Amino acid sequence: MADSAPHPLASPSSYSDSERYFISSGKKLSFQPIPTSIYRLAQTTESIKTKGTLWQLNPSASDDPSTTGNTFDVVSNLPLFAARYDNPLVSGNDSKTIYWEFEITSLGYSGTPAGLAFGFVVKDAGSEAIASNSGGSLRPYDQAAAPKSLSGPSILWNSVDGGVYENGTKVPDSEFQAKVGDIVGIGVTFQFDPSIPMIPTRDVNDNPNAKAGKFSKSLDTKGNKTTRVAEVKDLVPVPTRVFVTINGEERRIEGDVARAFVSGVADVFPVLMVFGPGVGGKVKIGEAVNFGGEGGLADAQLAAKGNSAHAGHKKSRFSKVFKIPADAWFGGIGSGMGTSSG
Question: The pTM is what?
Fold first, then answer.
């Protein structure tokens, strides 16, 4: 078993040009290896033709007892929200929405308990040890009676009761039932708060050959493309809203859900959890998603297309940034200057 002791949250990372492009577009994301041969995430002809990320979850063809009563959770290689770039108080945009879907094709075998949960996780400092452990995150399901990732705090939709679970605790009145054939989506919107001072940022030069993937891009005095980035110590929480869609119809979740960890100060990763044999479906991220526009949340459809299509972003009236020398920090309204740490 992996270490189950609590860990502090992992610090938000910096990312290369190409990684920022994939984060913002939701393209070509992969997941940790599944720690049981009963399941595998595979690419199909449909996957190859899809602009976003599409993985087929393939279970065994039989009721294999080795997975009965076991559960695993796997996390994507890159986040969908990179706090040092995507926090609206860094980018200056009115909002940033992250969203993905799971199309359910199977929920197990008759008489054998099985189900899935999926959503978002903020990695803790012990998550890499879990990923590298030979046993992975496979564990008896009775140790996770409610869906809860071993990689860190999570916000998950659960197929068993349709509930949304915030780090293992069910959110009141969140019962959004779905069945085989349905497509379920879950998203988080990070919102700009004009009452909070802009976060100090600096510009980093981009590879001139890299695809544009961030709305925080600007040009320096020499015409080079740059991206705003903040120091970890300067990040502050912003208002967030969690939502679920069932076949494109939005189901709002009331109250402050996941504000303790999904708040704009940490990177947020897609996570998929499965327990029991016979669960199947399609992971849909980026332009692979089916719904989220009419009949659902408009921002979800925009988020599916990546930042190149104004994914959940609108320019804020507070987004103007005043240039100062390259070795200094700068911010928007209400921010002071300090020295750069590189």
Answer: 0.82
